[in-house]
What we know:
By secondary structure, this protein is α+β, with helices and mostly antiparallel strands. The protein has 14 helices and 36 strands.
Amino acid sequence: xxxxxxxxxxxxxxxxxxxxxxxxxxxxxxxxxxxxxxxxxxxxxxxxxxxxxxxxxxxxxxxxxxxxxxxxxxxxxxxxxxxxxxxxxxxxxxxxxxxxxxxxxxxxxxxxxxxxxxxxxxxxxxxxxxxxxxxxxxxxxxxxxxxxxxxxxxxxxxxxxxxxxxxxxxxxxxxxxxxxxxxxxxxxxxxxxxxxxxxxxxxxxxxxxxxxxxxxxxxxxxxxxxxxxxxxxxxxxxxxxxxxxxxxxxxxxxxxxxxxxxxxxxxxxxxxxxxxxxxxxxxxxxxxxxxxxxxxxxxxxxxxxxxxxxxxxxxxxxxxxxxxxxxxxxxxxxxxxxxxxxxxxxxxxxxxxxxxxxxxxxxxxxxxxxxxxxxxxxxxxxxxxxxxxxxxxxxxxxxxxxxxxxxxxxxxxxxxxxxxxxxxxxxxxxxxxxxxxxxxxxxxxxxxxxxxxxxxxxxxxxxxxxxxxxxxxxxxxxxxxxxxxxxxxxxxxxxxxxxxxxxxxxxxxxxxxxxxxxxxxxxxxxxxxxxxxxxxxxxxxxxxxxxxxxxxxxxxxxxxxxxxxxxxxxxxxxxxxxxxxxxxxxxxxxxxxxxxxxxxxxxxxxxxxxxxxxxxxxxxxxxxxxxxxxxxxxxxxxxxxxxxxxxxxxxxxxxxxxxxxxxxxxxxxxxxxxxxxxxxxxxxxxxxxxxxxxxxxxxxxxxxxxxxxxxxxxxxxxxxxxxxxxxxxxxxxxxxxxxxxxxxxxxxxxxxxxxxxxxxxxxxxxxxxxxxxx
Length: 774
């Protein structure tokens, strides 16, 4: 090296070193200033940029450890441990170093080490500082509780919802429809606007299951004020209604509902009203299947501290009544949030930072015994961990629970997880009716329908109206055992009809699949009656007689139908067996859809079919049944007792006896009309009266009336004229007391004239027919 250059190099190296030291000193200075004002996020990279200087100072190691602990990511929080372990070796560091170290150990599931650190902290703080002593005692209790819960680890396997749902950002508060066909959740996603690069915004994402897998989640377009953050808050069991959170300023926010308007479309938000919403924070909610009760969380004044869980019921006027705090048995001085009421309307799950938590927020379960709630029970490890585990929802079949957590091993922030409930559980006696109502010819289409249910034992109306899905006609109702109900069904364009449901006094689970097909009976473009066909398939799960579960599950998962459901759970059998009670949730929604049942297979013993035809001219107040539904009286067609009627009709079809002289079916009676006229000539009355006598003698006989016209005039005129002539004859018999059920009448338009001429075309033909053979 040139000796002249050497001093310059030395100078530059020294200068560079001095600049490095100065830069590190500047970093430490700025980091300390940020630390003092609580901006740990900004201080952290500055400490790390001067790591060598940090390692030389126990106080700086403490500050770096604390900054890591303030990170939202658990994986980053655990990075604090070596720095805090080094910091507590020196008397220069604050006593809080032991507190943060204990918290870090706790989150790392090293509970014994956490307790030791907490005890060291307890020794160092002022003995007169009761607040700090109470705080550290609680931390010790939480760690001891965690040791106990982890030692009783269940065999539940917790799984991530997958990369299709989770991301490097935060996903939380999943809400899932009862049939697990749709899931919505809140996510923090980067803002697309260039000028706000790096910022995150809350969005609601929604996904539907396709071929058994969650489709790529899509943003739910919700119209809210600009700048308002939104999130999922709850969903009705039928998936028809979602409750969402719309944030305000200064940590406030309210609850709104949005209604499903199509297979994958939703309406605009509607406020839940001023009795539920306040000037404070209402964060999450859960609505019962009958739509009459909402459980929600709020930090409004008058609670026990933090967020509390409240309950409100709908009044007779259709408005929400004054909220009722669930009391000190549920609510604590800490946050109690995210209520989820199961469709049994007795089992409540919620998130709490109080009670016997094992750290952070845990998921708890409580059961309403009628007068009170049972002591909240921690769902245990590994569902709960020392991290935050919250926003729990259970599919209505009880087989799968969804929740969000920031536990170790996630992709980032909070992730969504699920677990399958254990199979070794007792059976619960319920009958679940999954049905479909279609109307019209062929396969039929869904028709606007309301189903009202009456308990025949108590004569009490079940105060809820089931509305089958407008697109599919699907409905679902849960019945307790040993009951007899009438389903009063009002379908648009049809007279009300009643189907009886007799639920056996079983001690195990039934599924009743039901297919109802309505057809209007037309005569000359006029509806004169209706046909109601009911097909039932009754599966007894005691003997595991059911559709192939894999096929059925996949068939259900590809559907985005919503089902109205669950009003009749108030009589569900009470059980002190917690495992059995949990299994109640497992049975309430088997995934088998009604579309998978082969109702046409007569070899399946569980399938029964009954058909009843009603003609309106036979229905008056003497034949209709008056059903009292609350304050309303509904006149319905006679009740169908499907099982009894199906057996009867099956036996009748086996052997039909002919109790009349077959020669009655041979004659063809012809009545002739004047040109372009439809009036029935009196000369035929006597002949028609003779036919009437035969019909009165044999109730299984009817008549077939065929009207014709000559070929004069255009086709439409002739069709109309042939109809009018047939109607004229039909009216003669109908007025004589022959009901339309026994009359088949049609106009056939122009008739090719025979050698007798055009007069032969202007006629009506009458034949006596056996109604059993048609």
